[in-house]
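Write out the 3D structure for:
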Amino acid sequence: MQAVISAQVGERAGADLSAFEIRQVTVRGRSEPMAVHLIPGARSLASGTPPEKRRKRVRVTSALLNKGVLASDTARAPLRRAFPAKVAARWMPGLFPEKVE
């Protein structure tokens, strides 16, 4: 298992986790058992995300990739933060000179 998500967290997130195995587990400090979903692979969580949230996530990620703020070696490779020089003045005003004479 790559992830274990409580049913309560899944409901709050608006995720449909009905495709994943559910179990009742005993948690120390709680009087009642807790329902959890067993997620075999993290990528399979995307299927439980509502379509409108998935589209927004794709739009935001694409915009950040286009601006050079996020980078990835391939379409399936993990994303990593990038620090393009064109945003330095905006992200850290006064740290870098605007014009060099």
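The helical segments are 7-13, 51-67, 88-91.
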